[in-house]
Design a protein that fits this description.
The structure is a single chain. It contains 13 helices and 16 strands. With 398 residues, the protein is an alpha/beta fold. A hairpin with a 2-residue loop joins strand 11 and strand 12. The two termini are 22 Å apart. 45% of the residues are buried.
């Protein structure tokens, strides 16, 4: 391969069709259509139908929690959870997370206070959490990033010392574990996502899990307009229900979950082998004693070692139809809704800023084959081994 062979410099793209970080996984369509036919026969399309109840029971059993309440999406689930606890003031959240984590706080009339992360785990740093606690703090909302659990025990200790609620955004952590226990029953409550590209999908959906019976009752009321019965409204609520169609898809997708995880695991193992020893490229690892879902292949790109920045490497990959993503750039604390009037962040988060400039998520999932992964690795390896030359040429050509 020569520099001129790269699509970014006019060559032919390596792939004819785009390779995405995540695409919807295939399910057993016959099983799904059987469920849909039954749904139509029942003439029950929404409002806590049989599939919703079955899906909730299945999830609660798998996650080993007392209550699972499915919602139309994960963001709505978070917002209802915050409302159900009648929170005020400030909530401490990581900046290195999907924007919806912070948006749910702001949308609920609360103030997100952004916290830095642990450099090794990419999760919220309990030491910085403690520094941000004030009299206005009412809760901690932490994200289990990449499906790797937060330091749950340290966060529980902080929440206990300061009498704070503790919630977890577990959108990426379905099927994952912490100390051998399924993620889902930690803190006061957790929120999951069943978005279209998740290992378990309801097309679009989410869930709130908790062992708190009173909290579960409040969430159940609030997701359905506050109705306790046909003609009895006992609280203010919204419409965040999951439809029967979504739950039918969820049950069918749940049946395929193990196969999806196996594919993701194989892809990560191949990426690890093919990129082994490549200077400046580090793939995050999972603890052998835990159960991951391998939803993401996450690389850190060190420009000093590679001679090519993460952003230029992404540009090279995109030109080849490899749609690698800069998760979670630039960090919520630098997004327009949360900066000061002068455009600067409210506080400096050095670890978040550093990691946000290095993380690149590579394609995985059931839509990819081993040849696709090999092709992506070949491009990455060539780009890194010729990083200085690509950087110089890209500079000359703008």
């Amino acid at each position: 391969m020569k520099l001129s062979d790269l699509a970014v410099f006019g060559g032919t793209p390596r792939f004819r069709e785009p390779l995405h970080v995540g695409r919807p996984h295939q399910v057993n369509r016959d099983a799904l259509f059987r469920r849909l036919n039954t749904m139509f026969d029942r003439q029950w399309l929404t409002n806590d139908g049989p599939y919703v109840e079955e899906f909730e029971r299945s999830l609660a059993q798998r996650l080993e929690v007392a209550h699972c309440l499915v919602t139309c999406n994960a963001t709505a689930g978070l917002e209802i959870l915050l409302k159900a606890c009648a929170l005020t003031g400030e909530i401490i959240v990581p900046s290195f997370t999907f924007a919806a984590t912070a948006h749910a706080v702001q949308w609920s009339g609360l103030t997100p206070v952004f916290c830095d992360i642990d450099r090794r785990t990419h999760n919220i740093d309990p030491r910085d959490v403690e520094k941000q606690v004030t009299q206005r703090t009412s809760a901690i909302l932490a994200t289990h990033l990449w499906g790797r659990a937060c330091d749950v025990e340290a966060l529980e200790a902080i929440a206990g010392r300061h009498d704070l609620y503790l919630f977890f955004d577990s959108a990426q952590a379905f099927g994952c574990s912490h100390h051998g226990r399924p993620i889902g029953g930690f803190g006061d409550a957790e929120a999951f996502s069943f978005h279209a590209t998740k290992p378990v999908t309801t097309f679009e959906g989410g869930a709130v899990t908790t062992d708190d019976h009173d909290l579960a009752d409040k969430v159940a009321l609030m997701r359905s307009f506050g109705f306790a019965d046909y003609d009895e409204v006992v609280s203010v609520g919204t419409n965040a229900k999951m439809s029967e169609v979504g739950a039918a898809m969820g049950l069918t997708s749940l049946e395929a979950f193990a196969a999806v995880v196996n594919v993701n695991c194989r892809h990560l193992a191949q990426y690890t082998r093919d990129l082994q020893g490549l200077p400046g490229v580090t793939l995050i690892e999972f603890e052998a004693k835990e159960t991951p879902n391998y939803q993401f292949v996450v690389a850190e790109i060190d420009a000093e070692s590679t001679g090519i920045t993460r952003d230029l490497l992404q540009r090279v990959l995109w030109a080849e139809q490899v749609l690698a993503r800069r998760y979670f750039y630039p960090g919520c604390h630098r997004m327009s809704p949360y900066v000061r009037p002068d455009g600067q962040p409210v506080r400096t988060l050095p670890v978040t800023d550093d990691l946000a400039s290095k993380v690149l998520c590579l394609p995985t999932g059931t839509a990819l084959g081993s040849d696709d992964v090999a092709g992506v690795c070949e491009i990455v390896r060539y780009a890194v081994e010729h990083g200085h030359d690509i950087t110089a040429r890209a500079g000359r050509h703008g």
